[in-house]
Sequence to fold (297 residues):
Amino acid sequence: MRTPTNIGQESVIHKNLGLVVVGYESEDVWGSFFDSLRSSSIVPSAIVMVENSPVLPNTDSAHDLELTILHRPDNPGYGTAVNLAFTSLPANITDVVVCNPDVTLDSQCLRNLLEAFSTLDRTAIVGPKVLTTKGEIYPSARAIPGIRIGIGHAVLEKFWKANPWTQRYLGGYQGIEPRAVGWLSGSFFLVSRKAFEEVGGFDEGYFMFFEDVDLCFRLKQAGYRSVYVPAASITHLGAHSTSAHMRSMVIAHHKSAEKFLSKLYAGPLYAPLRAVLRAGLRVRARLASSAFAKDKN
Fold:
């Protein structure tokens, strides 16, 4: 195993910690991502990078890190790429960071996340406070979007941002103590490998969006907790690979929402409800995608 030579003087290589990072058209952010990882107080002993773009990026910025590169030019989606990366991690890895490359880590982020695993019983997945480039807190630890919360948020959020359904869905971000939440953003989290593999990893039926909601939902069904850890923090550039494809991303988001709600409300008794939700989501997707098309023109 190659030993990193340029990590911070106070950094420790954690032999049981791995990291999976999935990129798509991410050339501009790999350098800052690896620089922040190198400066972390804890550095994973194994890093698997999956590139979903047709062309592999330059990885000179990671020359001193223990890096395995997997190339999927067919772009199978985020969850599928993560699942593939897990199969390439060494057997000794027990906890895994899963993230996008358009983030930078606070130096104590990984240490604080690892410590949080012992805070609440049956914790399987922990996520940090996510900051925007303006230093604002992004709502990354949310409630599962069931029918009441989901419809209230979807209908009112654009016109009445302070409505109670949106507030309940997005969650509160005061305080510094870890707390259990419905789901954590897939942009960056730390997960128990055992728990992740126990529930089958990401559902590969999602190309992108809602795979993180679905994962945390299935972990909850298996008796595990998802925990938000505000003492740990990252900065997220956000949507760097989707900003040029916003119309198609809106459609993908609504398609994934439809799939998740069909799973949440499964069974014959909920068939009428699924039909109504399906129709509503498809109308909303058409309206939103049309708005993006007009803006582009």
In short: The chain has two domains: 12-240, 244-296. Residues 12-240 form a domain with the Spore Coat Polysaccharide Biosynthesis Protein SpsA; Chain A fold (CATH 3.90.550.60). The longest strand covers residues 12-23. The longest helix spans residues 271-296.
